Amino acid sequence: METLQKPHVLMISEITADGKLTLGKGVSSKILMKHMSNEAEILLHETRAEYDAIMVGSSTIRIDNSFLTVRMVEGENPLRVIPNSLADLPLEANVFDTTKARTVLAVSSKAPKDRVDAFAARGVDVVVCGEDRVDFVQLMNILSAKYQIKKLIIEGGPTLNWHMLHHGLVDEIRLIHMPFIVGGSDTPSLVGGMPLASENDMIKLDLRSTKMYGTNLVTEYRVLY
To answer: What pLDDT shows up at residue 1?
Structure first.
């Protein structure tokens, strides 16, 4: 299925000097983010306030139990979008508290009906897009057509980032550089997924800006497909 319409997509992430997102596999990114400058943290929340929707993957919810709301600045909470093919995330996760913000759970056709019904009973919008797993192209169309989402921010881990880039759905990337080296051969990096077949498969970026926010360098790129 080709993209008929989609939001403008910004991928934003903190990243260490050696390209890592956390201190290790299965470790919350919140530990690293505690060392982010106040200025960079405000930028993160200003960005959330400027965007219509925010998306993270299932692993981020399991590990970080994020709220994905706007704090530190004035602004509306964005629509929260969680791809979770089998609807097997904990019902009590913070992101499914719809008194704070509206949440869309994107599932596949294989998601058990009882799980779908349980999320719906909590006030979560459940959308089916994909047979065996979430179809991200279809999801972008749904967000654009049904929810009128014009701008989407993704604060994903390596798996979600890879899917979105693999399908050519990311328009811009904003990296908040953390002046640390973490190491670890299996420590999550910005993008996971399958290794490239050749240098011809590399996704090229156009550096648009660099700016210091306190102790953190922030770089912004346009994605060239």
So the answer is: 45
DSSP bridge pairs for 173 = 11, 221
Q: What is the pLDDT of residue 4?
A: 65
Instruction: Kindly indicate the confidence band of residue 195, based on its pLDDT and cuts at 50, 70 and 90.
Output: confident
C-alpha 114, offset from chain centre = 26
- Sheet of strand 216-224: strand arrangement: 125-128, 103-107, 79-83, 53-55, 151-154, 8-16, 172-178, 216-224, 204-213
15 pLDDT more than 70: yes
Q: Quick one: which of 68, 60, 78, 61 has its CA closest to 21?
A: 60
70: left (phi over 0), alpha (psi -120 to 50) or beta: beta
Q: Where are the beta strands (DSSP E) in the chain?
A: 8-16, 53-55, 79-83, 103-107, 125-128, 151-154, 172-178, 204-213, 216-224
Tokens 């390209």 belong to which residue? 19
Q: Is the pTM of this model over 0.85?
A: yes
